[in-house]
Specification:
Blueprint (H helix, E strand, L loop, with lengths): L18 H14 L7 H8 L3 H8 L2 H24 L5 H12 L3 H4 L6 H7 L6 H27 L9 H20 L4 H13 L3
């Protein structure tokens, strides 16, 4: 989703905070590093924003992180949801998911790994707004998997002996593991082979 970094001001009034620019800056800081270890002051410095302005806009560090997750969903997660919603055969959707997971992040201009999975792993360290958003996004992701799996079962493209909830959690867990490996610097080619091996038992 394009982010608009410009922020027109009215003559005679103080410059207002560029919300989209701050969100983009915070997202990249959290994604490239650790979402629990990036101080507000660093985001303000990189975004050219003041702490009072940031707190007026987002209410708190917790509010900023919650808003960042909404941006991340639109920028990254939505593409996975679109793939899962496809009417293509199960094997084709599965391969599209793997390709999406192991895409070259450097070419895309984003860090390795997945910000949402990184934040899920440290959920207890966040405030209530961020923790609730993490839970909502996790459940939404699992629901997308469940709907895809149920369609595949209806079309006899997925093993009927595997409960849908179990399969959805399995896909989620394998994707999370792949994102951690990518963050650690493991080759995308290797990660792709790991995923194909892990998912082969489901066909």
């Amino acid at each position: 989703m394009p982010l608009n970094d410009s922020n027109p001001t009215t003559r005679g009034r103080p410059k207002t905070l560029g919300r989209d620019h701050v969100l983009k800056t915070a997202l990249m800081c959290y994604w490239a590093g650790s979402p629990t270890d990036v101080p507000i002051s660093e985001i303000c410095d990189k975004a050219g924003a003041s702490k009072p302005g940031l707190y007026r806009e987002f209410g708190s560090d917790d509010g900023l992180k919650e808003a960042v997750l909404d941006v991340y969903t639109e920028m990254v997660s939505k593409r996975r949801y679109d793939i899962l919603a496809s009417d293509q055969p199960f094997d084709e959707v599965l391969e599209a998911l793997i390709t999406h997971t192991i895409q070259d992040r450097q070419t895309a201009g984003v860090p390795n790994g997945c910000l949402l999975f990184a934040m899920r792993a440290r959920r207890e360290e966040f405030g209530p707004l961020t923790a609730r958003k993490i839970d909502q996004l996790r459940e939404n992701s699992l629901e997308q998997y469940r709907q895809w799996i149920d369609r595949a079962k209806t079309n006899r493209q997925f093993r009927s002996d595997i409960p849908t909830d179990v399969a959805a959690l399995y896909f989620d867990a394998q994707t999370g593991s792949a994102m951690r490996l990518q963050k650690e610097g493991v080759s995308n080619v290797v990660i792709g082979e790991i995923l194909r091996t892990a998912f082969s038992a489901l066909r």
